[in-house]
Amino acid sequence: MKKLLRNRELSALLAIVALFAVLVALNHSYFSLQTLSMIFTSAQILILLAVGATMVMLTRNIDVSVGSTVGLCAIAVGVALNSGYGLPAAMLFALLIGAIAGFFNGVLVVWLRIPAIVATLGTLGLYRGGMLLWTGGKWIEGLPASLKALSEPVAIGVSPLGFLVLIVVAIAAWMLARTAFGRDFYAVGDNLAAARQLGVAVNRTRLLAFTFNGMLAAIAGIIFASQIGFVPNQTGSGLEMKAIAACVLGGISLLGGTGTVIGAFLGAFFLTQIDTVLVLFKLPAWWNDFIAGLVLLGVLVLDGRLRQALARHQRAQKYSRFVPPLPGAKNVRQFPRKKKDVA
Amino acid sequence: MNKLKLNWEVALLLILVAEILLFGAINPRMLDVNMLLFSTSDFICIGIVALPLTLVIISGGIDISLGSTIGLCAIALGVMLQAGMPISLAVILTLAVGLLCGLFNAALIHYTGISPLVITLGTLYLFGGAALLLSGMAGATGYEGIGSFPDTFTNFANLTLFGLPIPLVMFAVITLLFWLLTHRARFGRHIFLIGQNPRAARYAALPVNGSLYGVYGMVGLASAIAAIVLVSYFGSARSDLGRDLLMPALTAAVLGGANIYGGSGSILGTALAALLVGYLQQGLQMAGVPNQVSSALSGALLIVVVIGRSVSLHRDYLQTTWRRLRGHKKLTGV
Fold this sequence. Notes:
The complex is a heterodimer. In chain A, about 70% of the residues lie in helices and about 0% in strands. By secondary structure, chain A is mainly alpha-helical. Chain B has 15 helices and two strands. Chains A and B meet through helix 6, helix 11, helix 12 and helix 14 of A and helix 5, helix 6, helix 12, helix 14 and helix 15 of B.
């Protein structure tokens, strides 16, 4: 049980399986790959944002502006397509916008030393306003069919963009877990000063974390435009909190240095699954947030209590040798002296 | 330190005056005293919730669930009034709901030891969901909410006292109370130490956990007050009434000089910054700038001001970085 709770990816996976089992138990016709791929389709945006948030949160920062970045990039791809550019050019343009938005966040946080939550709070409004200014408050409609085709299933119910999401997740997971470059993210978040002493390019790593986050938000924006077929004004608002919630569910600590991309992926999937299951049960939509909040808090309380117990246990072990032995106890060992400690 | 903070408040006041004069130059109607006073009703709720939020931030925490708390209180109030409850009882119960929401946050933070940002993120969904649930069960349609309240209630927000609108008077009273509590009472000093160094506060035998319940409870209470004012002002209770208040309230607290990492902040600064943010929205609207653009400008204002403060705080660091960048052009290619 303890191990299960400590391994957040495993427990998130189990939660997903359990929820799926409940769904299937109540209605056998949902036992199909189609249900899974349907949930995945609606989870794609959140998954990308959660992966991006992972990178930022690993470096002990936070980005609450991604919702607006998604909107901005969705607008970018829509405007570029409607003014006659090709699909690849439009997507590159959106990516570029996302990268700039993310990089600007990074500049504010890293170079100008503004606390991340304050800086991204500012850019949340700034990007949203920029987006509305750009479109004049109008919706972008009439997107070409070539964009919409990207979110139509090609194999096992997954669209080309869906495969792109899977590839991005795989690359990010591999990079953060296996490469020295990826481990830098953990080092920076765990102990900034130590990471610098070890020769990690701390500023570059943090800047890149924000930039990658912006680019992932750009892809999410493209997916939004492709799935919905038009770009409303409020595109992406509220997603920033959902992405962070998904990360927290997946075991990524806001204190930096802990968590994996797989955890974020599973967390995002689970959050979307809750919504989908409620829809399939034909519960009114107003249950969604309530249940998501309950689940999130339940996980947090369990996790927090466990962590406290663990810390107490470690502390007790650490100090047990200082506790005076019971009177009359035999074979009392002397407090071990280590001469090396002096050095 | 004290002198610097005083300077910051004076600077805020100057910015506020400059802002009003600037908008006055664009649209002379803005300079009308009545206009200035009565337009506050549109945004004063930002200030009402920003004040206790400042205390929370000073204590090293944060509460992002307050928007949802406002929604929940508003819906609860609406449901109770619709059921024909006497106004005074409904108002008291609404305040109790808000207080409970705040205490629930504090209890979770206390019980789990997890960072307040994460906990209140969870309760953001929980309270928001509860508000949606309640309004759904009461049969309110999404955007219209619960309406048709007794006139005595809807008139409340439009009353005047000594020629001042009631919400503004409430804001002034609350500001005074919080100023006394924060800067002139023992409780406030405790909060500052807890924000500076919780461990030291614990060793000094300060009631760390008790203060936690105190500050979050006050946020809940203030959210309930804001909900009552909003419902009375708009004449309808909706679950999303508070959604747009969180970001401006945080902006006001941060602009007012609160350190997001805890340990410093100023009630007067927050109050001034709330007016600054509010008049910015108001003035832009009157200058004919679309509503949406004003969100960009308030975001930009936040960034510019914070950059300014950051530059003045880290002057040495920035100077050395600048020199290094100029010395080795290659380093810029990050």
